[in-house]
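In response to reviewer comment 3 from the previous cycle, which asked for concrete evidence that the modeling workflow produces usable outputs, we include below a single protein chain processed end to end. The sequence was submitted unchanged, and the resulting structure tokens are shown without manual editing.
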Amino acid sequence: MTEYEHVRVAVIGSGFGGLGAAVRLRREGITDFVVLERASGVGGTWRDNSYPGCACDVPSHLYSFSFAPNPDWPRTFSGQEHIRAYLEHVADVFRLRPHIRFDSEVKRMAWDPEQLRWDIETASGSLSADVVISATGPLSDPKIPEIPGLESFPGKVFHSARWDHDYDLTGKRVAMVGTGASAIQIVPAIQPKVAGLTLFQRTPPWVMPRIDRAISGPERWLHKRLPFTAQARRGLLWGIRELQVQAFTKHPNELGFVERLAKGNMARAVKDPALRAKLTPDYRIGCKRILLSSEYYPALTRPNVDVVASGLREIRGNTLVAADGSEAEVDAIVFGTGFRVTDMPIAERVVGADGRTLAESWKDGMESLRGASAAGFPNWMTIIGPNTGLGNSSMILMIESQLNYMADYLRQLDVLGGRAALDARPSAVHAWNRRVQDRMRRTVWNTGGCTSWYMDASGRNTTIWPGTTSEFRRATRRVDLAEYEVLRAPATEETADRAERPEVTA
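The workflow returned the following structure tokens.
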């Protein structure tokens, strides 16, 4: 990368959002762009999360781009290796690799109001761009809690998203901290090989069976030869989830039936009433993400597993002490404690028009216009931005909606002509977020009685979209220029002088 390179569009990240943006740019006829990736390969969260048992909890045919269907998914719920292979395939088929700059983590980017461009410093050099598409994703930067004594723990420590494959857990005493989506996949995967497994559980999750199976050869043949069959399968999966949304957003009490199914799932696997009591949540199902596993509960009943229904309080040498005073001697600690979702580190590196970072602008909570544009940050858009997350369906649907918005945003800049930029009006941003938060009040995520990573430090849900994917698609179909301020580059002395000269006619 040359020091003074300039591109029309810079995309940050090469996960689903970044690769999707790159494909859409090419389909719009835009080839003057780069994809800045901090790692040495594509895949985003599906590259970073390679822990044992890692898989998606969204059906395979719904967890892929509509413009890049995969008739060869091997299972109804695909594993990490298959999803990463799919993303590698997308990068190859759509000829994206010449645009990707690996090992190019963004260190800082600042808006230049004179040139109407973003100046970007990366680990591999500097460049500038007219437009930035930030697709770093909310599940990209692991969060490890501050626990007294952790720095002096003599054993092995790592986060689920930074799995150390060189460290063999066989015969080791292992602590699993956390009971989220990663933990319930890790526990059954490592339980048979470890000497002992202590699960530190602050809040038990609701777990439903994961009805996973191999997709047969005839099914795959049919999807390949008759693509409309795969489209119909995808449509059915999407429709079922769209019908479920009202229970989450308007009528949480209707989820009581699902709760009973989840309790039945637990009762079939866990016969010990004391253990069942530890594992039974005290909040409405759906308040936290409903997890899918048919192996988690059986693994917890094995003799080498101990469930501590209390958070980890401190560490004394090899001894882990829970908040309830119980202790466990371990050789390794695995943190399944989530990610920096509502305080994304990339926000600390983005400097807007007034000299403030995005993190400073969002100090009272993330908010953006239609999940994409932040006031004071012209020609900057985010994929999977504030209030675009889902509690029951595929994020790829939301990403594709945001790609529609991105494409129209770039078209509007073309129509404006010259050196122009669009800056979201604060009034439009606040109006959009006021409507979102008003709708959020009655949802299960706000009323279900739990504390989740959907909420920011002030208790506001800045993560989830309180509606259907269809509603979001309609809301992001077009850019409304009335919601933006149009910025023009200041006239240079040469252009100003030319404008003042009288027209000379023959």
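The two ends are 50 Å apart (CA to CA). We consider this sufficient to address the reviewer's concern, and the full set will be provided in the supplementary archive.
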